[in-house]
Amino acid sequence: MDERILIIEDDEEIQRLLKRALTYQGYIVDTALSGKAGLKLASEQRPDLVILDLMLPGMDGMEVCRKLQKIGKQPILMLTAKDTTQDRVHGLDAGADDYVVKPFEMDELIARIR
Questions:
Q1: 3-state DSSP helix/strand/coil percent for the chain, to nearest 5?
Q2: Residue among 75, 74, 49, 52 at smallest CA distance from 63
Q3: pLDDT recorded at residue 1
Q4: Which mean pLDDT values do the consecutive 10-residue runs of the chain (114 residues) have?
């Protein structure tokens, strides 16, 4: 498999967990700790999917999501602790293709990625 996933997540522990699990599944995984770094990687690497946290330092995930839409047509899966219906609606309206709330089950996340 040569599908590339970009994880934009400021929690290093979650980032490591995701990278390990997705690499094990055969994906090529790039990571960024901030929205700015994630946008740079997205423009350089052209990922097949972006996993995006909402609460990021400097630039929030909503803004990153809107900017990602201008870079390419890659699907965006928001992975966040924000769990209200309104949060989900805002995320989907900002351009996310899916929305998963933390804490999450890895098996379900991998199924959504597929």
A1: 45, 20, 35
A2: 52
A3: 67
A4: 94 97 97 97 96 93 93 93 91 93 95 95
60 HSE (CA, 13 A, CB side): 8
From 25, 7, 4, select the one nearest 15 (Cα to Cα): 7
Give the pLDDT score at 72: 86
Burial of 107 (0-12, 13-18, 19+ CB in 10 A): exposed
Amino acid identity at 3 = E
Classify 31 as helix, strand or coil: strand
The alpha carbon of 66 is separated from its chain's Cα centroid by a whole number of angstroms, namely 13
What lies within 8 Å, CB to CB, of 27 at 6+ separation is 1, 3, 4, 5, 113
CB distance 103 to 111 below 8 Å: no
Q: What residues are paired with 100 via a beta bridge?
A: 79
Cβ contact 38:102 at 8 Å: no
CA distance 106 to 86: 24
